[in-house]
Amino acid sequence: MKMKLAVVQFFVISLLLSTSLFILSNADSSPCNGKCNVRCSKAGRQDRCLKYCNICCEKCDHCVPSGTYGNKDECPCYRDMKNSKGQPKCP
C-alpha cells in the first residue's frame, strides 16, 4: 500500500513540476512585451502600435512610458525617437 502511495505521489509531483516549467518557458521573454501590451491596450491599430512600441522599447533600454497615452517625459529616448518624416516614432 505504501509503495502505491509513493508512486502516485511521484507522478503527481512530476506532473506539477512539468506543468509549471511549461508555463514559465512560454512566458513573455522580453520585458518590452508586457509594457507594450499595456501601452497599446487602447490603440486603434494594436498591431502597428505593438510593432513600434517594441522597437522603441528595445532601443531605449526597456523604457516604456506608463499608461496608454502621454507620459513620454518618463522615457526621453522613447519621446525623442523620430521616424523618417520627423514625426514621433514611438506610440
TrEMBL record:
Point out the signal peptide segment: 1-27
Keyword list (alphabetical) reads:
Gibberellin signaling pathway, Signal
The cross-references to InterPro entries, in alphabetical order and at most eight, read:
GASA
Q: Which GO terms describe its biological process?
A: gibberellic acid mediated signaling pathway
Family affiliation? Belongs to the GASA family.
- This protein is called Gibberellin-regulated protein 10-like
UniProt organism field: Raphanus sativus (Radish)
